[in-house]
Amino acid sequence: MSPRTLAGLQAAGRLAIGASLVVAPQLLGGAWVGSAADRRSGQVLAIGLGARDVALAVGTLQALGARQGATAWLRAGIAADLADLVSTFRARDELSPPAVPATVAIAGGSVLLGAYLQAALD
Questions:
Q1: Sign of torsion, CA 81 40 26 98?
Q2: DSSP state, 37?
């Protein structure tokens, strides 16, 4: 599979997760931050995070379609995913047990894939 195709699939996954957080923040957000996602105050952050991922995905997909500028969007995604990893690690004692390994798998995997893709597409 080509790096361009992989980047498109990564963006599609980011779009799906982001849209899910915007539309139903308590569902996906709850798996990450627990009962905080049941309250409006917790949903504010989940919706903002979801919108961030939607914007990163749309920007990446547009850049891939134009065949220019995708690496900047991939780097922005890496930065966002690293922030998710660091903030999850810092709050690990207050999160549900599956939240940390799930975040490491999803965000960590996305960081590694993004690093490969931005180098391959340069």
A1: positive
A2: G
Decide if 60 contacts 73 (C-beta within 8 A): yes
> 32 exposed, middle or buried (CB, 10 Å; 0-12, 13-18, 19+)?
buried
pTM summary value: 0.90
Asked whether the CA dihedral 85, 87, 93, 99 is positive or negative, the reply is negative
For the chain, the structural domain boundaries read: 3-121
Between CA 44 and CA 23 the distance in angstroms is 12
Q: Would you state the structure tokens that stand for residue 34, as one six-digit string?
A: 């627990």
User: pLDDT, tens digit, for every residue of 55-110?
Assistant: 999 999 999 999 999 999 999 999 999 999 999 999 999 888 888 999 999 999 99
